[in-house]
Amino acid sequence: MSCVPPNSFLIAKHRKFLDRCLKVLPAAYSSLDANRLTLLFFALSSLDILDELERAIGEEERRKLIGWIYSLQLTGQSGTRELFAD
């Protein structure tokens, strides 16, 4: 068993956890499924802060994430524009 100094920040372990969160939500966080977009934001932001974003997410996965985010947006064709019209 290796002894880790209390001040050390384990970047590799944090990256692995965040990468796993991007792929499959851990069971402990399943109640937060309605907040997937918020969790995605924090996972991506955390990877960026750790300077691990480019290594963690490939080009194809990045395109899929962008597509998923855009799919969540409401457009005028969905009837929301009329709902908020003056």
From TrEMBL:
Q: Where is the Prenyltransferase alpha-alpha toroid domain?
A: 10-74
Tell me the Pfam families matching this sequence: Prenyltrans
Keyword terms: Repeat
InterPro entries referenced in this protein's UniProt entry, alphabetically: Prenyltrans, Terpenoid_cyclase/PrenylTrfase
Q: Which GO terms describe its molecular function?
A: catalytic activity
Top-level lineage group = Eukaryota
Report the protein name in the record.
Prenyltransferase alpha-alpha toroid domain-containing protein
Q: Which organism is it from?
A: Plectus sambesii
